[in-house]
Amino acid sequence: MKNAKIFFYISTGLLSIMMLGSAGLYFFNHAEVTEIFTRLGYPTYIIYPLAVAKILGLAAIWTGYSRILTEWAYAGFFFDLVLALSAHFAIADGEWPTAAAALVLLAISYFFNKKANY
């Protein structure tokens, strides 16, 4: 049980750094992010809502307030990262390893969250 919590905290902490970093870019470097989203084929009007959703998703995971809310947060991050990974593969810009690493961290966090808390 103790090891599960340690792995959960490490993986979720690293995932949080990645998600907060991307949300920060979405807010503070909007012009560059708009260009990237356009190149990836995504609409630019989702940039700010996606940044807010990332922050709220992290809050849901860290607080563990509700199991259902936590599951939805993990699902939202999963879909976000799978779409990011596939979009970067589609345009072959070489940025896919970051999304792949975040997806692995998400899977580790999810697994050890289940093991430690349920």
Task: Indicate the low-confidence ranges by residue numbers.
Answer: none
Got a strand count?
0
The overall number of domains is 1
Helix content, binned percent = over 70%
Q: SS-based structural class?
A: mainly alpha
**Any idea what the radius of gyration is?**
15 Å
Question: What is the terminal separation in angstroms?
Answer: 11 Å
> Treating each run of at least 4 consecutive H or I residues as one helix, how many helices?
5
Q: Main β-sheet: number of strands, strand sense, barrel status?
A: none
Order of helices and strands: HHHHH
Shape, per Cα inertia axes: globular
Strand content: under 5%
Quick check: average pLDDT? 91
Which features characterize this protein?
118 residues; mainly alpha; single chain
